[in-house]
Specification:
Strand content: 15-25%
Strand order of the largest sheet: 1-7-6-2-5-4-3
């Protein structure tokens, strides 16, 4: 084992089998396809116990049958990911281990190996080693990882330490979801309280500078820690809207324990939009836009969050995702520099037309995944808001456009009109409202958002290895085309025509 490539990431004392089971499940939270994990230790040290807990955690099945492979040498497990559990105790030579299919399994799955010292060459190929030692009625566990795997396994162990410090040492963790960012979410179950949600949002370092010495995240005002989430959550709750209560926070670690608002969204069981829920969500934005939101929000003593403005620089650099990522995928070559300049010139002209449009707090991703429908509640408590850490001050129409042209589901033109009408009717009911000005801003913000998303979904596929988002592209293209027919979008539409672009519903 190379001392340069491997380092010890944890040296733990486990008090009994329950603690071993928790560790196995926690390690499974970090496992990825291609991981070769070695479980090292003497007879009775707990290798099989840890492997069983790992596999049950991997498949989220506490009753999963996990027989010991001592006599069969190998056990196969099928599911969302393949797993191979091997025991080399009865092998007679190191070469015999190569006949068990481990290398083939690593191409599409995860491999656990007990008694790896029978095949020493595996130590040079492993990404994680777990050494278990009996010390009386306890176990000592030393975990080492290579450089590529160490951050994720260190992170899952840090989450358990966070739960222990917050009074949930025995809580069961279950992966809930991840998203297009580096954030992920887990449900936390503990016998003494209702289920909670753990937000795992490690601080993201700035990327390379791309303009004026600043990275993309700084220009586009993307949250780089959990501080903005805590701040916006506080503001929403103070204003009487439904957002998760925060039960515990580790701001420095990027960890939060928050209220579980439920699983129902504004979609039905088949994933189709429920018109009444979308309309109610539109009307809620009308009330939202009546609030005088603070621009500086206290998070803790000596810590505050300054809500950034959705500046022209931010809006423009988001549209450039279209020319940087969507254009090359569609055309097979990078956008020419003159085309990029024309694109920005067109967008500047468009944004000039709404320079005086109404502005408010913009949640920025106000659509089906982030709107929780609480059927048993009333008033503003009926609609729960999540995933708002990137909130900015910008055109009020932006969140209405995000909702009415939901990138994740098909919104017909008729449903879109009913959502916008619900919003506008409530605005008129609440006071003076410039419908014409709103309509122009809506078309522009919808186009800006969907141009950005077309680029992001290709970037997620090409750069981040997340092809699942490509299935949404035809829908987003159709949404983008809706805006291109509006007079306020003429400069951008003309530029795209000159370069031979066409979209469904907008053919040149």
């Amino acid at each position: 084992m190379s001392a340069i490539e491997f380092s010890t990431i944890a040296d733990l004392i486990l008090d009994g089998e329950e603690a071993t089971n928790r560790l196995g499940a926690d390690l499974a939270r970090a496992a990825k396809i291609g991981d070769l994990i070695l479980l090292d230790g003497d007879l009775g040290a707990g290798k099989s116990t840890l492997a069983r807990a790992f596999l049950r955690g991997l498949y989220v099945d506490p009753e999963l049958e996990v027989p010991s492979p001592t006599y069969t040498l190998v056990q196969h497990y099928e599911g969302p990911v393949l797993a191979l559990h091997t025991d080399l105790y009865r092998t007679k030579s190191a070469s015999e281990s190569d006949e068990l299919g481990m290398h083939e399994a690593l191409e599409t799955g995860i491999v656990l190996v007990e008694w790896p010292e029978r095949a020493p060459h595996l130590f040079d190929q492993a990404i994680l080693t777990v050494r278990l030692t009996d010390i009386g009625d306890k176990r000592r566990v030393t975990i080492s990882a290579n450089q590529s795997a160490a951050p994720r396994y260190t992170r899952t162990l840090a989450i358990r330490e966070f739960l222990i410090r917050q009074g949930y040492p025995n809580a069961a963790r279950k992966m809930l979801s991840g998203d297009a960012s580096t954030r992920s979410y887990e449900t936390i179950h503990d016998s003494k309280s209702a289920p909670l949600i753990l937000m795992n949002a490690p601080k993201t370092p700035d990327g390379p500078p791309i303009r004026d010495g600043l990275p993309y995240s700084r220009i586009a005002h993307l949250a780089e820690s959990v501080t903005p989430f805590v701040a916006i959550d506080t503001a929403l709750l103070d204003a009487g809207f439904c957002a998760p209560k925060i039960h515990a926070q580790g701001v420095d670690q990027g960890l939060l324990l928050i209220e579980d608002l439920g699983r129902d969204t504004i979609l039905d069981d088949q994933g189709k939009p429920v018109p009444e829920r979308y309309q109610a969500s539109g009307a809620l934005l009308a009330d939202f836009h009546q609030v005088k939101w603070p621009k500086s929000i206290s998070v803790a003593e000596g810590i505050s969050h300054e809500v950034p403005a959705y500046s022209r620089h931010a809006l423009l650099i988001e549209t450039e995702l279209f020319t940087d990522w969507y254009w090359p995928e569609l055309r097979g070559n990078n956008a020419p520099e003159n085309a990029k300049a024309e694109w920005l010139e067109a967008w500047n002209a468009v944004l000039d037309s709404i320079v005086h449009t109404e502005r408010s707090l913009v949640l920025r991703d106000y659509h089906s995944p982030n709107i929780i429908w609480r059927d048993d509640k009333t008033g503003t408590d009926k609609i729960g808001l999540i995933d708002f850490q990137d909130a900015v001050f910008g055109p009020s129409a932006y969140d209405v456009a995000s909702l009415a042209r939901d990138a994740r589901v098909d919104i017909s033109t008729e449903l879109e009109a009913s959502i916008v009408d619900a919003y506008c009717a409530r605005r008129i009911e609440l006071g003076v409202f410039d419908r014409a000005g709103f309509d122009a801003a809506f078309a522009i913000m919808a186009a800006q958002r969907n141009a950005k998303i077309l680029g992001i979904f290709h970037r997620l596929n090409r750069r981040d290895g997340k092809p699942v988002y490509l299935k949404h592209l035809p829908r987003v293209e159709e949404y983008f085309a809706r805006s291109l027919t509006e007079p306020s979008m003429a400069p951008v539409a003309d530029m795209l025509k000159r370069h031979g672009f066409s979209f469904p519903g907008w053919n040149v």
